[in-house]
Amino acid sequence: MEKKQKFSDILVIGGALFAMFFGAGNLIFPPLLGQQSGTSWFIGFLFFFIFDVGLALVAILALVRKGQFEINGITDVMGKVPSTIINCIAVLCIGPLLAIPRTAATTFEIGVQPLAPNFSTWIFSAIFFAIVLALTIRPSKVVDIIGAFLTPVLVITLLVMIIKGIISPLGPIDLPETTNPVQNGTLNGYQTLDVLASMIFIMIITSSAQGKGYTEGHSLSKAVLSSSCVASIGLFVIYGGLTYLGATTCNLADMQGLNQTALLVAITKALFGNTGVILLGVIVLFACLTTAIGLSSSTGAFFEELTGGKVSYKKVVIIVVVFSWLISNAGVSTIIQFSAPLLNLVYPGVLVLIILAFFHKSIKNKNIYRVATYFAIIVSALEILAGFGLPTGFVKFLPLAPMGFAWIVPAIVGGIIGKFIPCKD
Questions:
Q1: For the segment 220-242, what is each residue's pLDDT rounded down to a tens digit?
Q2: Which of 105, 187, 132 is nearest to 298 (CA)?
Q3: 7-347, what's its fold?
């Protein structure tokens, strides 16, 4: 019998999803985006939200529509080998390669370094990941720990900070520093990694919903969608508030030229003084811990399934935590600098697959997916190479290239070409 949906269940699962999405990238990027966008802060924020939460929600909706609650539901049309490669790259990006190390690095630079400048990053990150390991090693408890205990503290501290900034703005919002808030918002949205994470998080959220009794197809889909909407609403409010706070620093000379973490520290100190720095430390700690827990758990489950159980969940989690500990000590700026080209390469192809997944009932030829995806990846690769000084700058003349979407038209062309290539599977 189909279980009737309970608001309390949806709130807990949605709160957990919110907390897992709202991690290091989500915390540090909106304020700088707001400062750079100035009077166009809402436009920058809107595109940030669309290419972060919006597309993450689209990915979840696509998986629910197909009735497949795992990453393969998006990538399986590419064939076994390409699908496995894409899945592994996505999981590594949101796992030990980029996202998980960034959680510890962000926590240290924002929550620890301003208060204890001489404290060792190696010691702190070891403590941080010891906590992550302890809370991740038992997957059945992960979502309830995050949703029921950590999320309320995270939300309250953030809302206090935002409300204070709205009541007492730091300064007037001036003309934008950047002339392209659309592209800036889009690229910042990529950096949060939430689109990639959504295809992994859906597994743990689905498992949680099933554990609460939503086992039937319709009730399960409805619970996942309702929880996703709860998380999206919360993220819209928090993202918008942080972007606005950044926009109010446009005219403050002492806040110009700061990186993502330093600007967030400066804003909080201006709003609350030294007490604010402590408050920010609490915000960062819970935001990054919850994300690291969710990502580590999902990564462990993915590779255990990929290896057919030959590598256990516990072993994967331990490897992920240790590797993330080592990478995290490179610092936030280095991790972001390293991640930008990789994400700009991976995202367009994944976005093509997500969008086309909505039309899976109408698409009979899998080569439509494949050629469209390959064309998007190729154009993205050419853009990255141009950034390194190689003679591939002609891609900047493609339609929508100034907005950061040079891959869209080639993907459409690739899909059309794929339609006329016979498919053998």
A1: 777 777 888 888 888 899 999 99
A2: 132
A3: Hydantoin permease (1.10.4160)
